């Protein structure tokens, strides 16, 4: 491997423009494909195989008019005033009529008229679709614990889809689209929001609050650039040169541009969520900068310490540090691609795009970077750096890294116990971790989504933020769903302790399906709502058995509940897969049993501590003001899987670069704890710089308004801090000191089977020395005849 990469590095250095033009051409092709295909992303995050998704797919196929997405808008009057004054009613009803006139929005009057109903029946159907309370005990019964409310009446008729609270201060407008929100063109959502917010311009004190399903995701903004600025500063301090510091940034930005652009260019053919490119950019920037930093730093050390030319040093750096980059990148890619086996579409897309970003950045670091180094030439190290190098090396021998390594070696057991205790305490909150999807109840207080959620809860009950859609089917093929059966089923469901309102929505023409709307008493992320969904689905429940039906539950709330449960179920499987695969990679790289096992145990400590701290901050709300959110809530359901995959790969980066330096020191004659100190001293500076860069890049995403990116960015930031500084820089050298030379013991039978990948470049150095000796011998032979004369 190292010999092959050495040749690539030398070729790129000698013919820089060939490689530079090739990469620029690739970027141009990607840009052209984006121009042809456009950019297509959505917020769809569905999991095939879940009960809610199965029911929804069934509705799409058999009763498409009932399968469209639902949305709501809250209209409020100033505190203490009513909305149902003539002027305000006129403004609100105009906004509602405008919404019903928008394409993709179902108008209940027209839908009922098309079915042959009278205008009065259509109005009643619209009110029922909104979940309004009817006088009939068959439909529903008002709960004394819930706020009093009813349909908004205009000229003696209810306004379709609108309810008003008992004090008249809040009106809730609920409507349905012909398709799911994820399939809606953005311009439709923009028209809806524009139509309802027009009431605010009539100077009547009305405020329109769209629900979270109508609020677009915040765009990635300038906050992410802060991490790049910090990374640039760290690069300059580490490499001591503006030119050297600029190269990792240039290569990382190009790699991210190609990978993200490539993902966008294929988004017409591959379904992609809107968070996917942001996640790939987050990972790609971090690894792209770090991988180039490792190679540039190795080249500079070879120039300064060994007196090599920039050309030879660049080639050897690609051969040695480049080998470590290749296998470090491979661990990240394996960890990400492990998500594919879970067969979750949106996670698969996220994982593959992020893995592609890592792969491209590895290729850029191994090919484009040496080409750029060829353009820079000997300027990669200034005359001042060459002159001061001996003093700097001498100072490093007595510097902080040397003192820390000696301290770790001398107090290894104290440090091991201390790190385990600290990370164990940090992990405690992870035992209470709850998974879910962001909703209005966790949005910031100044957002329309949160204000809409609170207004609905105050005026109509929190359950109106978590509606459920039930599909009832006969248990026997000979039975049918009749109005009488549906009425009895509604009465049975209404008796459940957590049910507020039950509304029959209709029966299909063949009598195979009955549809019911259920409003719980609890919110979308409450455990009571999840329990209600399970109770309604239970085939052995009194509700299903007494009515001889099978009940399926779907809707946005049920889909999120199922998604969280499914992801929690497959998480242990995923962790097992990446641990096994990566253990094999580390065994090949280090040719050791102890080192891979130790690395894996260290990662497990890192990940549980990371989830513990993330739970305390985002679920319990500790220090929430520091991180720009107001209310704690469940953690993002796919966050543990995504963070585990990324963090494992990045943790192994540090493991490879740090421990390979220790192995290199061991191979070159440093025995026992001396190899630990020597290897730590050689690698710690660049590993610390790499960790700070990754932390800076990830921390930039904590400042974004998108709670998904905020949680992932925070978890990765904390995870890198813990893994780099507690585990890799403290726990790893302490454990290596405990085992000493035994850490490198490898069974002979396994040694014969496992190929030698030569990550440290020993074979390469031997070949170069042999070639140099052969050249010297040949030169001597040529010179011998002339001396004889």
Automatic annotation (TrEMBL):
Ranges that cross the membrane: 20-39, 226-258, 278-296, 317-341, 347-376, 413-431, 571-590, 602-623, 635-662, 683-702, 714-739
Annotated localization: Cell membrane
Matches recorded under PANTHER family: MEMBRANE PROTEIN MJ1562-RELATED, MEMBRANE PROTEIN YDFJ
Keywords of this entry: Cell membrane, Membrane, Transmembrane, Transmembrane helix
Source species of the chain: Paenibacillus lignilyticus
Gene3D superfamilies: Multidrug efflux transporter AcrB transmembrane domain
Topological type in the membrane: Multi-pass membrane protein
SUPFAM superfamilies: Multidrug efflux transporter AcrB transmembrane domain
Pfam families: MMPL (PF03176)
Protein name, UniProt field: MMPL family transporter
InterPro entries: MMPL_dom, Mycobact_MmpL, SSD
Domain SSD intervals: 227-375
């Amino acid at each position: 491997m190292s010999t092959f990469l050495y040749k690539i590095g030398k070729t790129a250095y000698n013919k820089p423009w060939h490689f530079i033009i090739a990469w620029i051409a690739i970027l141009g092709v990607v840009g052209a494909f984006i121009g042809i295909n456009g950019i297509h992303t959505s917020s769809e995050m569905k999991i095939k195989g879940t009960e809610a998704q199965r029911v929804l797919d069934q509705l799409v196929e058999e009763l498409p008019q009932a399968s469209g997405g639902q949305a709501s808008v809250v209209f409020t009057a100033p505190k203490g005033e009513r909305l149902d004054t003539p002027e305000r009613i006129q403004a609100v009803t105009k906004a509602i009529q405008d919404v019903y006139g928008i394409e993709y929005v179902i108008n209940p009057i027209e839908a009922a008229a098309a079915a042959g109903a009278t205008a009065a029946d259509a109005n009643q159907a619209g009110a029922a679709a909104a979940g309004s309370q009817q006088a009939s005990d068959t439909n529903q019964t008002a709960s004394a614990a819930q706020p009093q409310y009813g349909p908004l009446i205009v000229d003696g008729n209810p306004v379709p889809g609108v309810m008003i609270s008992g004090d008249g201060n809040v009106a809730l407008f609920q409507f349905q689209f012909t398709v799911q929100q994820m399939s809606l063109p953005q311009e439709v959502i923009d028209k809806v929001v524009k139509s309802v917010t027009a009431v605010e311009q009539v100077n009547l004190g009305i405020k329109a609050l769209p629900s979270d399903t109508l609020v677009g995701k915040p765009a990635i903004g300038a906050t992410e650039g802060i991490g790049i600025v910090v990374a640039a500063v760290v690069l300059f301090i580490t490499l001591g040169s503006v030119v050297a510091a600029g190269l990792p940034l240039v290569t990382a930005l190009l790699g991210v541009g190609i990978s993200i652009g490539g993902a966008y260019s294929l988004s017409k053919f591959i379904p992609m969520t809107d968070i996917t490119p942001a996640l790939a950019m987050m990972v790609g920037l971090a690894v792209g900068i770090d991988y180039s930093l490792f190679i540039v730093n190795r080249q500079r050390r070879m120039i300064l310490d060994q007196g090599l030319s920039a050309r030879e040093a660049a080639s050897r750096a690609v051969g040695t540090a480049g080998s470590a980059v290749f296998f470090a990148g491979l661990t990240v890619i394996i960890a990400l691609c492990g998500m594919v086996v879970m067969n979750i579409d949106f996670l698969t897309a996220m994982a593959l795009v992020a893995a592609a970003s890592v792969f491209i950045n590895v290729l850029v670091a191994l090919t484009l970077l040496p080409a750029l180094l060829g353009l820079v030439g000997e300027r990669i190290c200034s005359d001042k750096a060459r002159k001061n190098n001996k003093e700097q090396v001498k100072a490093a021998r007595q510097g902080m890294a040397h003192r820390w390594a000696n301290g770790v070696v001398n107090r290894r057991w104290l440090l091991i116990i201390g790190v385990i205790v600290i990370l164990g305490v940090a992990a405690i909150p992870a035992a209470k971790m709850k998974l879910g999807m962001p909703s209005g109840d966790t949005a910031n207080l100044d957002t329309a989504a949160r204000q809409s959620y609170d207004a609905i809860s105050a005026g109509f009950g929190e359950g109106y933020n978590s509606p459920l859609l039930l599909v009832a089917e006969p248990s026997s093929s000979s039975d049918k769903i009749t109005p009488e059966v549906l009425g009895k089923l509604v009465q049975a469901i209404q008796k459940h302790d957590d049910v507020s309102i039950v509304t029959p929505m209709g029966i299909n023409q063949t009598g195979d399906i009955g549809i019911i709307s259920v409003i719980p008493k609890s919110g979308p992320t409450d455990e009571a709502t999840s329990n209600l969904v399970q109770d309604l689905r239970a085939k052995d429940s009194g509700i299903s058995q007494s009515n001889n039906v099978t009940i399926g539950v779907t809707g946005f709330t049920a889909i999120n509940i199922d998604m969280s449960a499914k992801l929690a179920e497959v998480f242990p499987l995923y962790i097992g897969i990446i641990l096994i695969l990566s253990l094999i990679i580390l065994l090949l790289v280090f040719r050791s049993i102890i080192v891979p096992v130790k690395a894996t145990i260290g990662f497990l400590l890192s990940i549980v501590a990371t989830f513990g701290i993330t739970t305390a901050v985002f679920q319990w709300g500790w220090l929430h003001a520091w991180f720009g959110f107001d209310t704690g809530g469940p953690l993002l359901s796919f966050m543990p899987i995504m963070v585990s995959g990324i963090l494992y790969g990045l943790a192994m980066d540090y493991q490879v670069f740090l421990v390979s330096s220790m192995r290199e020191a061991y191979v070159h004659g440093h025995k026992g704890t001396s190899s630990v100190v020597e290897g730590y001293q050689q690698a710690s500076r660049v590993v610390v710089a790499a960790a700070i860069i990754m932390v800076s890049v990830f921390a930039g995403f904590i400042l974004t308004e998108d709670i998904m990116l905020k949680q992932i960015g925070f978890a990765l930031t904390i995870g890198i801090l813990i893994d780099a500084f507690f585990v890799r820089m403290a726990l790893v050298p302490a454990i290596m000191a405990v085992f000493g030379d035994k850490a490198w013991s490898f069974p002979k039978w396994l040694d014969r089977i496992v190929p030698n990948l030569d990550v440290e470049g020993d074979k390469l150095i031997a070949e170069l020395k042999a070639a140099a000796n052969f050249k010297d011998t040949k030169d001597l032979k040529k010179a011998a005849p002339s001396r004889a004369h």
